[in-house]
Amino acid sequence: MANVFEVLERDHQEAKRLLLELEGGPPTTGLTESQRASARKYRVNHLITLLSKHEAVEEQYFWPTVRELVPNGNELADHAIRQEQRAKFKLNDLIDFEPGEFRYEEMLTGFINDAREHIAFEEEQVFPELRLVIHPERAVELGTKIERAKRMAPTRPHPHTPPTPGVLKATSPFVGTADRIRDLVTGRARH
To answer: Cα(23)–Cα(33) distance, rounded to whole angstroms?
Structure first.
């Protein structure tokens, strides 16, 4: 079983890979303009799905644990949740635009910078603090809960949903199912 740090760091590594690919722009070798745009859209949709699930389960399980165990946990969690809320709005807006459009590329560039800042905040400030106080068994238990919750978590950002654990735990399976249906209907599931 993976502990909470391994589970979240795995998501971070995948997000960092996608951010790097997106920052480099669309692949150009042997692809038409339409194929380049499609590849870029695919990566963005993958990133949106990954981060939507990641943030939803963090807000349900990780941040309450940080608040409970870490001496300055409320401050750390509040800061991170503010970052996550801003990210949800940006990701939600990205869904409505197409690669190559000026606004899309502008929003994506801003998001890439914000995402790197947020990941660094978690890895460099929050994780070390939590590692000092969490019992290894609880870290594994938390990792298991997060992995399980990600299976039903939303695949789209929901910036207007309050980032409170109780609300998210109660609504996440339903919202996640609705997102998956919407993704199938709109063709986003192919991404």
So the answer is: 17
